[in-house]
Amino acid sequence: MKFDSPLIKGKLIKRYKRFLADITLQDGSEITAHCANTGAMTGCAPQGANVWLSVSNNAKRKYPHSWQLVELSHGTLACINTGLTNKVAHEGLLSGLMTELTGFDECRSEVPYGDEKSRIDFLLSYGQKLVYVEVKHVTLSTEKGVGSFPDAVTTRGQKHLRELIQQVREGNRAVLLFIIMRTDVTLVKPADEIDPEYGRLLREAVREGVEVLAYGTDISQNEIKLTQSMPIELSDELN
After folding, report:
1. Which of 4, 34, 53, 192 is the most exposed place for a label (fewest CB within 10 A)?
2. pLDDT in tens, 144-161
3. pTM of the entire structure?
4. Is 107 in the same domain as 217?
């Protein structure tokens, strides 16, 4: 997924009110940018960090700048825009890079489904067989090389797991797909210390037959590309 236009560089002053961030640009001016991330963004908003922004030409936008990337320690890049995650996943599906999810006849997005009135990120059709694919954005890392999800209690994410479990019970295939949107993570695990109910439901989902996949990304100021499958650690609680 290539960015529509070149990103501009700045330094983060602070993120606040969830959707706003104050940033100093390279010319010394200070602007307020839109932050497309509803999560806690733990560890991804350090004061003074290098950040990269896109700029919209839409005159109707109150905040034309959108925060896209942040540089963390040791040159690690992370994408904080959760709105890009599905675009990266969609490209991976269409390219055939995700070998577990190839050969489908049709790929639809944001399809309503489930008893709890959800929308599935991608619904793949293999003839009459359906595969429900729910995508999650991973940027939290509290251990070296380990990514965790979620970064805040997520009742919405819990609902999605229940919906996926129900689809398996109805005879469909269901997949939870973690997209790792930072460059220093090589393994994913549930953040039990943040949302123990999510971790419990994730393990239950695996026992019920929900497939869990994780894929890494290569992130630059020009594009974000899916790379390779990464392992998932659910610990002994699965046994």
Report:
1. 4
2. 999 999 999 999 999 999
3. 0.95
4. yes
